[in-house]
Amino acid sequence: MLLTATSLLLSITLIVLGLIHFNWVLGGKWGFEVALPTNEAGKRVLNPKKFDSMIVGLGLSAFGAFYLFQAVFTAIKMPDWLTTYVGWIIPSIFLLRAVGDFVYVGFFKTIKSTPFAKMDTKLFSPLCLFMALAGFTIQIFNQ
What we know:
The protein is mostly helical. Helices cover 65% and strands 0% of the residues.
């Protein structure tokens, strides 16, 4: 029951994040500026195109679907190799994101005073760490 709830929460979180990225593809601006790392002078370090946001949105939505199938659509059996490998890959991606690049992103970033860095410390990195720990927990207890 707890694993199902965790899978469902993870699924919803990932799908909502995917929808935010699709909003940016369609020209939405909500959260876009603060979601991009900048240097101390305020210049963006990343300049994603709409296509980049679409790829990230598709990836996040696919990750969400993976956990949705584990939580809700249990009658549809995914191949064991898929649940094993993808089940470890997804949380590993978010753990790496939480650790970061040691400069602009993650818990160990050195640039901490920009608007992005502050949001990263308060929300983005903790959310990534939560998703990593939830994914690892699901994977460990589903084996």
